[in-house]
């Protein structure tokens, strides 16, 4: 064991750092998916597309800022701007004109409508940004690297992945929990999640809550995509992959759980990056193995609550 | 009365497919693939009857296709490859089914998706066995002991596919009318009442699941023997989504719907991909949205409307 650490300790450290950064991104997407499902009761298959479009938009705005010779520090706010733009435009449009028509439908049809949206958005990306990889890493280069002490050695790691990604994820987690529990709008959202009919009867405008939640969820996914854009090139298909992964996180955590999603994202993020360094063939398998393992023992996810059965 | 009507239409459809294939031989390929997908969609239809949608049936298509590709060098005959591929998929369906029938609706759909993604990643990553994304070529098999030249072989596979399609459609009709099939509708409306009557909902769903896996397996074997090149993409989750898409496009009412849907889907896809390489998903996605919002009965519903009957 001691020998193993001597040989592989640094690699393990790198895997942990990588996994933490990756978990932060996955959490951003999964928590949005979870929030939207909790309120609208629709599992949005196109959620991963917001991630991809957020990333592409961030890269485009970033490239524009660079080309204009604007100050370099703008690279960071640009990421947030991209998320606001994508969430603010796509969210209301899709909720108002498509989802609002299908709230009363069977879950199967709702799932298919979002699948149709996914197909459409997939090609919209190709039409706007082409099929070549898009990469813009100004934000990551801006912050440089840090030497992370690890045992007797140290691991050079980008400050962006070390501080910004987990920082934003933590801020989202705490902010969201505070928002949902302490503000009026947040409590209205929780009320609609818990019992839509009772909430509507109390005078809550459920339509407004749906619109707000969907837009917010889309913006969170877009922010995840924007934050990921400096760390990896964007290619067609990234939305599809993200969607499946964030579902794995949501299913592991249990539908409707926010803190749970953070823990599941950590499990899956760390599991995946450890696999990347020590068993590369299993990289893609790890998230699903974790998910299936959890669901076999706890069919509603780690923190899921059993719903009362309607008879 | 409806059954008679359906039989006439089925005969017309088979005749139309054969005529189209005779007039323009390049259609043989598309029509064989469409017929194969129609068979797989028939299986999806059985699950839809229970209100469950699987976003992972491409797993069985791909599993059977790869079984054919692996066995082709040793057992190079359609008469052996087709049943072996289909039975392999059926056996896998029994194992996977035993796990997923414990879940309903979104969890059912997405767990299927996750499991199919596990298989997809295995196909992609285990390069030494599966040749990764390059896929495996299948040499021209014999047809019931006869070594046919290419054109005759393509005709033989098309006719085989049509015979299987008719057999599966008849079987689906009988199955849905049987008590077992009626149990499926009960799962959709009130599962608890089914259980109160002493019928195991899980067993009812499992029977439909295994049959649907068998049908997807037939489709996969035919596709492998037609395109004679199998790639992991056969098992990607979007391929599963296509099957559900075709089911809705065709209309969930009759057993002819899947085949109408599959032919329409493949033709649109081929033409759209030829004219707008990066926008065919956009076209298909928009079609799906329009069908769900404005033509709920699908193509089969339109046929019924035109011939003055109600589903």
TrEMBL record, chain A:
<feature type="transmembrane region" description="Helical">
    <location>
        <begin position="285"/>
        <end position="306"/>
    </location>
</feature>
<feature type="transmembrane region" description="Helical">
    <location>
        <begin position="260"/>
        <end position="279"/>
    </location>
</feature>
<dbReference type="GO" id="GO:0005886">
    <property type="term" value="C:plasma membrane"/>
</dbReference>
<keyword id="KW-0813">Transport</keyword>
<feature type="transmembrane region" description="Helical">
    <location>
        <begin position="160"/>
        <end position="180"/>
    </location>
</feature>
<dbReference type="InterPro" id="IPR001851">
    <property type="entry name" value="ABC_transp_permease"/>
</dbReference>
<keyword id="KW-1003">Cell membrane</keyword>
<keyword id="KW-0029">Amino-acid transport</keyword>
<feature type="transmembrane region" description="Helical">
    <location>
        <begin position="20"/>
        <end position="43"/>
    </location>
</feature>
<protein>
    <submittedName>
        <fullName>Branched-chain amino acid ABC transporter permease</fullName>
    </submittedName>
</protein>
<feature type="transmembrane region" description="Helical">
    <location>
        <begin position="50"/>
        <end position="67"/>
    </location>
</feature>
<dbReference type="GO" id="GO:0022857">
    <property type="term" value="F:transmembrane transporter activity"/>
</dbReference>
<dbReference type="GO" id="GO:0006865">
    <property type="term" value="P:amino acid transport"/>
</dbReference>
<dbReference type="Pfam" id="PF02653">
    <property type="entry name" value="BPD_transp_2"/>
</dbReference>
<comment type="similarity">
    <text>Belongs to the binding-protein-dependent transport system permease family. LivHM subfamily.</text>
</comment>
<feature type="transmembrane region" description="Helical">
    <location>
        <begin position="209"/>
        <end position="227"/>
    </location>
</feature>
<keyword id="KW-0812">Transmembrane</keyword>
<feature type="transmembrane region" description="Helical">
    <location>
        <begin position="233"/>
        <end position="253"/>
    </location>
</feature>
<dbReference type="InterPro" id="IPR052157">
    <property type="entry name" value="BCAA_transport_permease"/>
</dbReference>
<feature type="transmembrane region" description="Helical">
    <location>
        <begin position="73"/>
        <end position="90"/>
    </location>
</feature>
<feature type="transmembrane region" description="Helical">
    <location>
        <begin position="102"/>
        <end position="121"/>
    </location>
</feature>
<keyword id="KW-1133">Transmembrane helix</keyword>
From TrEMBL, chain B:
<feature type="transmembrane region" description="Helical">
    <location>
        <begin position="106"/>
        <end position="123"/>
    </location>
</feature>
<feature type="transmembrane region" description="Helical">
    <location>
        <begin position="196"/>
        <end position="223"/>
    </location>
</feature>
<dbReference type="InterPro" id="IPR001851">
    <property type="entry name" value="ABC_transp_permease"/>
</dbReference>
<dbReference type="GO" id="GO:0015658">
    <property type="term" value="F:branched-chain amino acid transmembrane transporter activity"/>
</dbReference>
<keyword id="KW-1133">Transmembrane helix</keyword>
<dbReference type="Pfam" id="PF02653">
    <property type="entry name" value="BPD_transp_2"/>
</dbReference>
<keyword id="KW-0472">Membrane</keyword>
<feature type="transmembrane region" description="Helical">
    <location>
        <begin position="155"/>
        <end position="176"/>
    </location>
</feature>
<feature type="transmembrane region" description="Helical">
    <location>
        <begin position="280"/>
        <end position="303"/>
    </location>
</feature>
<keyword id="KW-0812">Transmembrane</keyword>
<protein>
    <submittedName>
        <fullName>Branched-chain amino acid ABC transporter permease</fullName>
    </submittedName>
</protein>
<feature type="transmembrane region" description="Helical">
    <location>
        <begin position="243"/>
        <end position="268"/>
    </location>
</feature>
<keyword id="KW-1003">Cell membrane</keyword>
<feature type="transmembrane region" description="Helical">
    <location>
        <begin position="81"/>
        <end position="101"/>
    </location>
</feature>
<feature type="transmembrane region" description="Helical">
    <location>
        <begin position="55"/>
        <end position="75"/>
    </location>
</feature>
<feature type="transmembrane region" description="Helical">
    <location>
        <begin position="29"/>
        <end position="48"/>
    </location>
</feature>
<dbReference type="GO" id="GO:0005886">
    <property type="term" value="C:plasma membrane"/>
</dbReference>
<dbReference type="InterPro" id="IPR043428">
    <property type="entry name" value="LivM-like"/>
</dbReference>
């Amino acid at each position: 064991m001691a020998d193993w650490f001597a040989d592989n300790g640094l690699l393990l450290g790198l895997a942990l750092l990588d996994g933490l950064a990756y978990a932060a991104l996955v959490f951003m997407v999964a928590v949005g998916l979870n929030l939207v499902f909790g309120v609208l009761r629709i599992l949005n298959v196109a959620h991963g597309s917001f991630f991809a479009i957020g990333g592409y938009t961030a890269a485009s705005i970033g490239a524009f800022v660079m080309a204009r010779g604007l100050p370099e520090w703008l690279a960071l706010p640009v990421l947030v701007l991209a998320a606001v733009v994508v969430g603010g435009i796509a969210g209301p449009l899709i909720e108002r004109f498509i989802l609002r028509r299908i709230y009363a439908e069977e879950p199967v049809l709702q799932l298919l409508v979002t699948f149709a949206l996914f197909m459409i958005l997939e090609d919209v990306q190709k039409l706007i940004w082409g099929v070549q990889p898009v990469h813009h890493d100004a934000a990551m280069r801006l912050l440089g690297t840090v030497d992370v002490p690890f045992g007797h050695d140290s691991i050079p790691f980008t400050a962006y992945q070390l501080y910004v990604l987990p920082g934003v994820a933590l801020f989202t987690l705490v902010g969201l929990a505070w928002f949902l529990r302490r503000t009026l709008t947040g409590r209205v959202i929780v009320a609609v999640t818990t019992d839509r009919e009772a909430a509507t009867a109390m005078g809550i405008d459920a339509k407004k809550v749906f619109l707000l939640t969907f837009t917010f969820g889309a913006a969170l996914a877009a922010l995840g995509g924007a934050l990921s854009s400096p760390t990896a090139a964007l290619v067609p298909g990234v939305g599809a992959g993200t969607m499946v992964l964030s579902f794995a996180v949501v299913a592991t955590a249990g539908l409707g759980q926010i803190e749970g999603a953070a823990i599941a994202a950590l499990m899956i993020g760390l599991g995946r990056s450890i696999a990347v360094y020590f068993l590369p063939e299993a990289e893609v398998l790890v998230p699903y193995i974790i998910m299936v393992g959890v669901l076999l023992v706890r069919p509603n996810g780690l923190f899921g609550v059993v719903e009362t059965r309607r008879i | 009365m409806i059954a008679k009507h359906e039989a006439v239409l089925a005969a017309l459809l088979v005749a139309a497919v054969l005529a189209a294939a005779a007039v323009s031989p390049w259609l043989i390929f598309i029509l064989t693939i469409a017929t194969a997908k129609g068979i797989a969609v028939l299986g999806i239809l059985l699950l839809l009857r229970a209100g469950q949608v699987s976003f992972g049936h491409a797993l069985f298509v791909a599993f059977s296709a790869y079984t054919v590709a692996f066995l082709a060098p040793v057992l190079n005959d359609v008469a052996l490859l087709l049943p072996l591929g289909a039975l392999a998929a059926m056996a896998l369906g029994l194992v996977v089914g035993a796990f997923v029938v414990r879940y309903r609706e979104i969890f059912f759909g997405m767990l299927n998706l996750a499991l199919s993604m596990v298989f997809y990643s295995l196909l992609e990553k285990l390069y030494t066995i599966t040749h990764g994304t390059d896929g495996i070529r299948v040499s021209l098999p014999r047809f019931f002991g006869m070594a046919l030249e290419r054109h005759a072989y393509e005709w033989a596979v098309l006719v085989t596919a049509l015979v299987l399609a008719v057999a599966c459609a008849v079987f689906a009709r009988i199955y849905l009318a049987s008590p077992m099939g009626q149990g499926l509708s009960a799962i959709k409306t009130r599962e608890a009442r089914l259980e109160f009557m002493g019928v195991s909902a899980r067993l009812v769903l499992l029977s439909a699941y295994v049959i649907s896996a068998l049908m997807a397996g037939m489709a996969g074997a035919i596709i492998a023997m037609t395109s004679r090149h199998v790639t992991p993409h056969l098992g990607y989750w979007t391929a599963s989504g296509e099957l559900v898409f075709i089911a809705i496009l065709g209309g969930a009412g009759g057993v002819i719907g899947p085949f109408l849907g599959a032919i329409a889907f493949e033709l649109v896809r081929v033409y759209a991909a030829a004219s707008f390489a990066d926008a065919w998903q956009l076209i298909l996605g928009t079609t799906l949205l329009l069908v769900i919002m404005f033509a709920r009965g699908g193509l089969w519903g339109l046929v019924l409307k035109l011939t003055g009957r109600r589903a």
